[in-house]
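Sequence design from tokenized structure. All designs in this work follow the same two-part layout: the structure record, then the generated sequence. An example of the structure record is given first.
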């Protein structure tokens, strides 16, 4: 019986830095009105520990007239600034040119404009006004209201990666990226179906038609839905499982995992 661990790529990174190095005082808070511009020296918005950064990630080769960037969250302390989330436009294309700007606004949250001032992406706040942004040490970028309720967060809008502490509900899912350097939508899809079943399938591009799943968790019960799954959990400890409505677990990681205190864990499609 094939298990899901063969389909996820678990990449583990040793922390190659001295934890006692002094860092600038920072609490991860981003005020409304703050901006970042792609390709400038403006430093990204860091989590309190500095492990995660929110900012522009350089895509592809250095070429000053044709540079492309993606608005991303990435590991900030390792030499390979591995991206774990990115903002993508309607065509699933996250690449924006040098000079593009992101601004934290009260009404729309994060707004990404190209150098001509045309909006290419926003975090789309349904109700309420954003009072503050926060780059959390878990890797989650959170927009909160004045009463601290969560209006938007990157964990609820996954791109191609899940991190420890992240959770996925039924009818949520995401796609792989095309390649390491091209973040356009790839052919692989990860979904937790309405019935609680986790499936992996290939989609036909560009029609978006989903082919039959090549992995089916089987974590559902037609006769008794309390036995069916309803959330994919990736725990801080590094374990991943489907939580059933009755509280039971369907394990996705079957091996003992290495301590999350010593390694970065990520699950990437
Ligand atoms: C975080 O730092 C900013 C500026 O340094 C400050 O205005 C804000 O009150 C701090 N927030 C918390 C929760 O400590
Ligand atoms: C940048 O790349 C474009 C095509 O990708 C090329 O036409 C142009 O000459 C390059 N510019 C520099 C300065 O290398
Ligand atoms: C922020 O990070 C802390 C641990 O660093 C975690 O306990 C908390 O749940 C996180 N909050 C959000 C909204 O992700
Ligand atoms: C990335 O892939 C898409 C879809 O195949 C293509 O349209 C686009 O030109 C590619 N972008 C780059 C920078 O290669
Ligand atoms: C459904 O399964 C639960 C155990 O998960 C059990 O307690 C319950 O009695 C079952 N309900 C029916 C209608 O069989």
């Amino acid at each position: 019986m094939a298990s899901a661990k063969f389909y996820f790529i678990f990449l583990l990174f040793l922390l190659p830095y001295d934890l006692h190095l002094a860092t600038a005082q920072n609490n991860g808070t981003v005020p409304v009105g703050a901006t970042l511009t792609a390709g400038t020296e403006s430093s990204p918005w860091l989590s309190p520990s500095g492990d995660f950064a929110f900012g522009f990630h350089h895509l592809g080769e250095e070429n000053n007239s044709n540079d492309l960037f993606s608005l991303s969250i990435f590991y900030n302390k390792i030499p390979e600034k591995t991206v774990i989330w990115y903002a993508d436009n309607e065509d699933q294309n996250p690449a924006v040119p040098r000079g593009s700007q992101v601004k934290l606004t009260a009404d729309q949250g994060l707004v990404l404009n190209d150098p001509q001032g045309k909006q290419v992406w926003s975090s789309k706040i349904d109700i309420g006004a954003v009072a503050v942004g926060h780059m959390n040490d878990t890797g989650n970028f959170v927009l909160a209201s004045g009463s601290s309720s969560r209006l938007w967060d990157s964990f609820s809008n996954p791109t191609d990666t899940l991190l420890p502490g992240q959770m996925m509900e039924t009818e949520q899912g995401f796609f792989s990226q095309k390649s390491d350097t091209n973040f356009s939508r790839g052919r692989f899809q990860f979904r937790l179906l309405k019935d609680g079943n986790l499936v992996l399938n290939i989609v036909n591009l560009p029609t978006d038609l989903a082919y039959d799943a090549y992995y089916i968790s089987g974590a559902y019960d037609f006769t008794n839905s309390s036995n069916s799954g309803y959330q994919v959990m990736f725990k801080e400890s590094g374990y991943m499982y489907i939580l059933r409505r009755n509280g039971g677990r369907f394990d996705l990681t079957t091996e003992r995992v290495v301590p999350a205190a010593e390694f970065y864990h990520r699950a990437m499609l």
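Residues 95, 178, 182, 184 surround 2-acetamido-2-deoxy-beta-D-glucopyranose (ligand 4) (CB under 6 Å). We note this feature because it recurs in several other targets discussed in the main text.
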